[in-house]
Design a protein that fits this description.
Strand content of chain B: 15-25%
CATH architecture of the domain at 31-91 in chain A: Orthogonal Bundle
CATH architecture of the domain at 24-206 in chain B: 3-Layer(aba) Sandwich
Distance between the termini of chain B: 55 Å
Largest sheet of chain B: 9 strands, mixed
Radius of gyration of chain A: 12 Å
Number of helices of chain B: 9
Largest sheet of chain A: none
Number of strands of chain B: 9
Distance between the termini of chain A: 32 Å
Structural class of chain A: mainly alpha
Oligomer: heterodimer
CATH topology of the domain at 24-206 in chain B: Peroxisomal Thiolase, Chain A, domain 1
Radius of gyration of chain B: 19 Å
Strand content of chain A: under 5%
CATH topology of the domain at 31-91 in chain A: Non-ribosomal Peptide Synthetase Peptidyl Carrier Protein, Chain A
Largest interface: A-B, 14 and 10 residues
Number of strands of chain A: 0
């Protein structure tokens, strides 16, 4: 399904998503970097978004405002999440 | 001001009574149980009993199933086996401590000053398993989750009779049991492994469940577990409940097994 290889950070985030959200029978290579994570695509839901926000805070020290408008863009795909982590990580 | 119906008239029309031997008012149509057994233990040899400690719950989509514990998976699987979803039956789930460690583990997380997992939080409610089943099965009938301090079986039968009094013909009832974290076990009688039983109860058809007043056994009654119910349904001794003090029997178990098998073979 995924034909573009993942960058090391994207691979790390894909593993974080799979482990944190307890996805069954999904491997990092199943997640395409530009594919939607929520709704269509991987099919994550709003509880997953909160869980992922917590995981980003624990792993990278990134604090997201729950109401921030741009969260939707940050969480759109693996590559947008990687861009967020690149710019905002403190650990 | 709203006029309420005369309370005495209401009481006269809808008397609250315990089932009596002469007029059984609850009938058993079908059942399934999940009793995970250690590898060295002997098997139950009954196709209605699931013994695997990792139930598949293939009827639940993977994205929902990932949030269920083995107990939740077993319950969702068995509810479909008795057609609770297909026939849109009201479902009542009774359990003393809910789904295992989840709610109590969250207290530790709070005490340690850590952030709570939103997923765990959403699943720590007593009706979490039924909620997920309702999404998975597109089930829109009434659902209720009970905790009754060790009197869950009595609670289930009370609720069932309530639904029947309202004109509902059949309900699915679930009794489940789950171990508490070690440190709480001194405070409560707790299971060491999770287990569950699902029964399809009717007010017209099936094997009559009969309750007789049994005041002498009031002190001797114990907490009824899924395993007790399986033994009872397999022709074992009568069950004794404390409040109300009743002796519960189910007739023609051998006949039921044959009839049920015949029914399954024709499906």
């Amino acid at each position: 399904m995924a034909n573009t290889p993942l960058t090391p950070l994207e691979h790390e985030l894909a593993t974080l998503i799979i482990d944190t959200l307890e996805l069954e029978d999904v491997t990092p290579s199943d997640i395409a970097p530009k594919a939607p994570l929520f709704g269509e695509g991987l099919g994550l839901d709003s509880i997953d978004a909160l869980e992922l926000g917590l995981a980003l805070q624990k792993r990278y020290g990134i604090k997201l405002d729950n109401d921030a408008e741009d969260n939707r863009e940050h969480f759109a795909s693996l590559s947008s999440l990687a861009a967020l982590v690149e710019t905002r990580r403190v650990s | 001001m709203r006029q309420y119906p005369d309370r005495r008239a209401f009481k006269r029309d809808m008397p609250v009574q315990h089932p009596l031997p002469s007029s059984p008012s609850v009938f058993l149509r079908d059942w399934r149980a999940w009793l995970p057994v250690p590898e060295d233990a002997s098997s139950f040899d009954d196709s209605r009993i699931i013994e695997s400690d990792t139930p598949q719950a293939a009827n639940v989509p993977a994205m929902l199933r990932r949030r269920l514990t083995p107990l939740g998976r077993a319950i969702c699987e068995m509810l479909d086996m008795i057609n609770a979803g297909k026939d849109n039956l009201p479902i009542i789930h009774a359990s003393q401590h809910g789904d295992g460690h989840r709610p109590l583990d969250m207290l530790d997380t709070i005490a340690a000053g850590d952030a709570l997992s939103p997923t765990r939080f959403s699943l720590s409610v007593h009706n979490a398993i039924l909620g997920i089943y309702s999404i998975a099965a597109g089930h829109h009938a009434s659902m209720a989750a009970l905790a009754a301090g060790g009197e869950e079986f009595e609670g289930l039968l009370h609720e069932t009779r309530g639904y029947f009094a309202e004109g509902i013909d059949e309900v699915a009832v679930v009794l489940s049991d789950s171990p508490l974290p070690e440190r709480y076990r001194a405070q409560a009688v707790s299971a060491t492994v999770p287990s569950a039983i699902v029964m399809r109860l009717s007010r017209h058809e099936g094997l009559p469940i009969v309750a007789e007043p049994d005041p002498t056994r009031e002190q001797g009654a114990t907490r009824i577990t899924p395993r007790h119910l399986v033994d009872w349904l397999s022709g074992g001794e009568a069950l004794h409940t404390r409040r109300p003090a009743l002796r519960w029997t189910i007739t023609s178990c051998a006949h039921a097994t044959a009839a049920d098998t015949a029914q399954r073979d024709t499906r």
